[in-house]
Design goal:
Distance between the termini: 20 Å
Radius of gyration: 21 Å
Shape: globular
Strand content: 15-25%
Low-confidence stretches: none
Number of strands: 12
């Protein structure tokens, strides 16, 4: 059985993949030709972020499993996989801690203007700071954090935020029976949250949910954090809210188009902290992910029920 990993893997990850009892070819995401060649006789695709289209699936005649490294399967043509009889599995829980920690990091970095301070200090201007900049510095303690979505990451964040001294509330499709924090409908949550953090899958219902109306309903001086999916946010509306000062800032790990263009207007705003869709990526996440890969490939060979099967 042959697997293909489409990812720009680090030397350490290559070593870990090589230690699996599974012949695996690693292909850089930018090498489309090599990827299509290697997929011709691949049984398993280890998928990270590069879209898995119907063209890719239909050309891989031996393909039996698309194993998502992560949770979101919106980058996979599930209809094409279903039509071809190709199983699709994900990995709930493997990156929960990593994403929760990055979310907390973006909250703190945005409130303290960390990116701007880092830039100024590196060029010797940190001690010549415009006093007006410090007017925007704030603490997380004492603020209200609104979680939009209350899955594994949101639940992991609650004790972290409470330990710092933040009040935490949440919204979701319906209240959770076992929730330790208060539920508010989405429209009621917007005006009370000092920081709004998105933790939702990308669906037809959630696409663009954070638009001009939602930003207008948010408290003036509040912060948006997105470590979920870029298209949840209307980025033109976000840019306008940040430029006008209605929003204090934003911490973004994801964008509507990825890789994000260097010319994207959001990247020119000093009150935005950005990372390149790597909230999930830690050595610990990869270790947990490799365990799932190994087990699912074993089950594929023996005919066992696959873990976390989506299709």
């Amino acid at each position: 059985m042959k697997a293909v990993l489409q990812y720009r893997a680090s030397p350490e990850l290559r070593q870990r993949i090589g230690a699996l009892d599974l012949p695996t070819v690693i292909v850089d995401e930018i090498d489309k030709d090599m990827f299509l060649r290697e997929m011709r006789d691949a049984d398993v695709l280890l998928h990270v972020l590069e879209p898995v289209t119907a063209v890719v699936i239909d050309a891989a005649l031996r393909l039996k499993l698309i194993q998502k490294i992560g949770i979101g399967v919106n980058t996979i043509d599930l209809g094409a996989a279903r039509r071809r009889g190709v199983a699709v599995c994900n990995m709930p829980g493997t990156n929960t801690q990593a994403v929760a920690e990055m979310t907390l990091l973006l909250m703190l970095a945005t409130l303290r203007g960390l990116a701007r301070l880092d830039d100024l200090t590196r060029i010797g201007k940190g001690w010549e700071l415009d006093p007006k900049i410090s007017d925007d510095f704030g603490e997380l303690s004492g603020r209200t954090v609104g979680l939009v979505g209350f899955g594994a990451v949101g639940r992991r964040l609650v004790p972290m935020l409470q330990a710092i001294g933040a009040k935490v509330v949440y919204t979701s499709r319906r209240p959770a029976a076992d929730s330790p924090i208060a539920f508010l409908p989405f429209r009621e949550l917007l005006p009370v949250a000092d920081l709004l953090s998105l933790h939702l899958p990308l669906t037809a219902e959630t696409t663009g949910m954070m638009g001009a109306a939602a930003f207008a309903a948010m408290k003036r001086g509040s912060v948006l954090i997105n470590t979920a999916r870029g298209p949840l946010v209307d980025e033109t509306a976000l840019c306008a809210a940040l430029t006008s000062g209605h929003l204090r800032g934003a911490g973004l790990d994801v964008f509507s188009r990825e890789p994000v263009s260097p010319d994207d207007p959001l990247l020119r705003l000093p009150n935005v902290v950005v990372t390149p869709h790597l909230a999930w990526l830690t050595a610990e996440t990869l270790e947990r992910s490799l365990a799932v890969i190994s087990e699912n490939c074993r089950r594929l060979l023996t005919g066992g029920a696959l873990l976390h099967r989506v299709v």
